[in-house]
Design goal:
The protein has 428 residues and is an alpha/beta fold. The chain is built from 14 helices and 15 strands.
Length: 428
């Protein structure tokens, strides 16, 4: 199996447009969650009126204006999640220095990018228009803008990438599955370079209302949105929906070396599992999460003691955070792991960016890669009080400088789907 490395990063997040701005604001403890009543009056009738939203504004200021990234024709054809993905891809390809023109290079470059929900607003608006005006009110672009694989499709068309064109849609595990699947395409020889990641944009009253009715969302912080997402905290009440995209450029090791590419880290392991338990809730002992992490370390050929940092899925739900915490401790403590819980370094970045659903795994993979490169553990903001059993090092409030050679990043989704990625510093 061929070795796979990371050579480029790009992101559009609630902390800003561009990976450098997002990363610096994350380490400084900023939060991208706001009250969204101004976006739609229907939010005022809902128990949850907050979301993590990509900020508007100029590109130079770290804000989002579609016209700065896309032509009018491109923007008209793309759902918002695909627009975010396109911008993140442009940044990542530029970062990697990979914009191939020869046929052989484009044939060896593929795309693996998905979304959890995709173009929710388009579905809603079209249903309403159809009910009022019938067939002629259906936009000819309705289906192309609806399909989740069109995020990957638009990227491949713009850059002429003719390698694997793949789109995972596995709820909140989508981003991690996309990256792991892309790595396997390279490892198995189907491509030399892959654009991989996840994207989401479904900040709509009906979508938020659906999650709220499922009792998944934080509903006690409408007047203080920046405090709503509080992973691991004893007073956590649910997650906050976010939007954005993240893309990483994966590359076969010798291919990257031959062209002198900057290598951030190596993707050493990818593990998947299923809870086989419940539509929305994990097993309380975190068995599914444990199996995914264990498989990632097995593929990486690393013992639990080698893990320096875990970027947790931890969305700020009562059951979910507890189950993942139990799984992490079960895996990393013991004869082959750490001696005490305080030596287990875990943080969740969802306090800052919310839960990007299908984009979460990709954004958090980027954060884990940068943690390795920069030797810093991102903070878990809003962590004021720990409940019983939460005795690891969660980097509360402030980033922590430390040597990070190996990092796990976890993603779990409705339906009991789990994934864990293992990144490591490249060994000479």
């Amino acid at each position: 199996m061929r070795r796979v490395v990371v050579t480029g990063l790009g992101a559009v997040t609630p902390l800003g447009v561009g990976i450098r701005r997002t990363w610096s604001r994350l380490l400084e403890g900023h939060c991208g969650i706001i009250n969204v009543n101004h976006r739609d009056a229907r939010f005022k009738d809902q128990p949850c009126q907050i979301a993590a939203v990509v900020p508007k504004g100029s590109r130079d200021e770290g804000g989002w204006m579609a016209s700065e990234w896309l032509s009018r024709g491109e923007g008209r054809k793309m759902a918002t999640f695909a627009q975010y993905a396109m911008a993140a891809t442009e940044e990542a390809l530029g970062d990697a220095g990979w914009k191939p023109e020869p046929f052989e290079q484009r044939e060896a470059t593929g795309v693996c990018l998905g979304s959890g929900i995709g173009n929710f607003e388009e579905i809603y608006d079209t249903v309403v228009a159809y009910e009022k005006g019938g067939y002629k009110k259906v936009n000819p672009l309705f289906v192309p803008k609806l399909l989740i694989n069109l995020g990957a499709g638009h990227i491949s068309m713009k850059y002429g990438f003719m390698g694997p064109n793949h789109a995972a849609t596995t709820a909140c595990t989508t981003g991690a599955h996309s990256i792991g699947d892309a790595a396997r395409f390279i490892a198995c020889g189907d491509a030399d370079v892959m654009v991989a990641g996840g994207a989401e944009s479904c900040i709509h009253p009906l979508a938020i209302g659906g999650f709220a009715r499922a009792r998944s969302l934080a509903t006690d912080f409408n007047d203080s949105p920046e405090k709503a997402s509080r992973p691991f905290d004893a007073d956590r009440r649910g997650f906050v929906v976010g939007e954005g995209a993240a893309v990483i450029i994966l590359e076969e090791l010798e291919h990257a070396r031959a062209r002198g590419a900057n290598i951030y880290a190596e993707l050493r392991g990818y593990g998947c599992s299923s809870d086989a338990h419940h539509m929305t809730a994990p097993k309380e002992n975190g068995e599914g999460a444990y199996m995914a992490m264990k498989k990632a370390l097995k593929q990486a050929q690393l013992p639990p003691s080698a893990v320096d940092y875990v970027n947790a899925h931890a969305t700020s739900t009562i059951v979910g955070d507890s189950a993942e915490n139990a799984a992490i401790k079960s895996l990393l403590l013991g004869p082959d792991g750490k001696q005490k819980a305080a030596d287990v370094n875990v943080s969740s970045t969802k306090g800052a960016v919310g839960h990007l659903l299908g984009g979460a795994g990709a954004v958090e993979a980027v954060f884990s890669i940068l943690a390795i490169q920069n030797g810093v553990m991102p903070p878990t903001i809003n962590l004021n009080r720990l409940a019983d059993g939460f005795d690891c090092n969660y980097a509360p409030h402030h980033a922590q400088k430390r040597q990070i050679n190996v990092a796990l990043t976890n993603s779990f989704g409705f339906g009991g789907t789990n994934s864990s990625l293992c990144f490591a510093k490249l060994e000479k």
